[in-house]
Amino acid sequence: MNAAPLRTETLLYLNGVTVSFDGFKALNELSLIVEDGELRTIIGPNGAGKTTMMDVVTGKTRPDAGEVFFRGKADLSRLDEAAIANLGIGRKFQRPTVFENLTVFENLELSLTDSRGTLRTLFARSTPDRRDRIAATLARIGLTEQSGQPAGSLSHGQKQWLEIGMLLIHDRTLLLLDEPVAGLTDRETEKTAELILDLARDRTIVVVEHDMAFVRSLGAKVTVLHEGSVLAEGSIDHVQNDPRVIEVYLGR
Amino acid sequence: MPVSPPGPRKSAWSARFWAGFVACGIVLVLVVPILNLWVPPNSVVAVPDYLVPLLGKYLCYGLLALSLDLIWGYAGILSLGHGAFFALGGYCMGMYLMRQIGTRGVYGNPLLPDFMVFLNWKELPWFWWGFDHFAWAAAMVMLVPGLLALVFGWLAFRSRVTGVYLSIITQAMTYALLLAFFRNDMGFGGNNGMTDYKDILGWDVHQPSTRLGLYVASVVALGLGYLLCRFIISSKLGRVLLALRDAESRVRFLGYSVTNAKLFVFTVSAVLAGIAGALYVPQVGIINPSEFSPGNSIEIAIWVSVGGRGTLSGAIVGAVLVNLAKTWLTGVAPETWLFFLGALFVLTTLVFPRGIVGLLRQARWTRARATAGVPAGEQA
User: Fold this and answer.
1) Cβ contact, residue pair A106, B8, below 8 Å
2) ipTM value of the model?
3) Which listed residue, of B160, B236, B251, B345, carries a Cα 20 to 30 Å from B215's Cα?
4) Does residue B184 form part of some domain?
5) pLDDT digits (tens, 9 = 90+) for B29-66
6) Could you give the number of structural domains in chain B?
7) Of B227, B256, B266, B369, which to mutate for an interface test with A (greatest number of A Cβ within 10 Å)?
8) Alpha carbons B140 and B91: distance in angstroms, whole number
9) What is this structure's pTM?
10) Contact (CB<8Å) A81/B245
11) Could you list the residue range(s) of the whole structural domain that residue B129 is in?
12) Does B5 touch chain A (CB under 8 A)?
């Protein structure tokens, strides 16, 4: 691996991060750097630490050791989920989690970048400007017609898009997408890849995925995780020809 | 395709809503006093004097149920200790009423309530200070339950205690208070509590006119409490609450403070429960530690689920109906009441989980869909 860039020049900086659960090391001195504006895919077998890595970055799990920095300054290992979200880091979960009892419109409304304080939300008003932004996002994720429906009535694929839309409308700098095409049909997968490539033009995205065809279609730099640390990094062709990667993926 | 998507929901403050609200208010404020004061007592529709405080009591229970529905129905916080906030509000009012007795007590002590004289106390404990003033007592009615909820809620929500665990510690809270208030040393009358009130703001609490006044005050408090709850749930905060009820961690990742949102409604809810308790005490004439009993708090949850959780109006309907049934049944066959209550709860859970109001809303909605030519059941 080449010389690590300075912490201050990176968007996301993980150095020597270790997380253990009852002795099992989910992350083992993981070091990972994501540059501003990058689209990165992360692959790895089950238990490689992909989801734990996202948990650490979003504040759900505290690392036992190591450094996690956003934009070189904000120490993510000391902040809680809400504070990290407000720094501009958004996360999409493995299973689509939208607010089923709220309408599609309301799901997006809650994700808008404004008034997060409890008292301010009590007196928040819906303005034409906010409605326009919601309308624009609805159009972008193709759910304009479903606007007034409860999110619980959407199909699996539509929920995935709604969740991406919720991250989109918040103007996050960094999006973490955990298996965005799990359980989708081929057509839906194709549409999701288009959506991600479209989004990647003006923000940094980290995608965790199993589906190799999908990873290939994104055409981005790939990081392979194995047993909690980085096994290989590079283009999809580079990592697929790496003998260690072949052994981990095919050798059992 | 619509150019701009429709707003969040139908406006919570439509003309139709106000018409219904004002109509209910007029019926409650005017009809009972008219039937009580101007209809001859032997008439069928007359409201006899003894019924007025009973109806007032039901309305206090309605306000209490409303306060629980705000947190349970909308934020998913099932407090099984809400009776504690009600009782604390009641005790604050009881202390004021005790101080109003003055020299008319059995022992004729101008400063100390009878139970303190009986226990040989020489002076008024410090925490009784100010309770001879109504304004102080009224402030405490809201502050004491509010502060307890703030501290308790902060500890619980910050540590992310949710679901059944939260329900259990709220039960523990009300039980601990029950035991504490049983002790004579606490200075709140111990086992016997406080009773034998004489007057409130200079009016004799036994006079029918005072009781009508308290009844009307209960209607007003219930109405204002309802508007406050409706304002909260129809705000963006209300949607944050609904969202965190369904997917709490997702709300955190969106950047909202789940702790603060829960703490806010929990405290508002406790204050409403305290006000309900304060209006309840002068109408029933006594406050004692049994109000803290865990069973009472569980009963509140039953009222709310019978009426319809997450509907606000359902909580009030449930509280009034269940208590009407209780009054009637404990008169006719007292030993069957608990069986009835248990059966009611099981029946509600199994047969109509949305409660009475939920059932009515669903029926209305299905009919509206049928007339619009959309097959029913297409959407859950």
Assistant:
1) yes
2) 0.83
3) B345
4) yes
5) 999 999 999 888 888 888 899 999 999 999 999 999 99
6) 1
7) B256
8) 10
9) 0.88
10) no
11) 32-293
12) yes
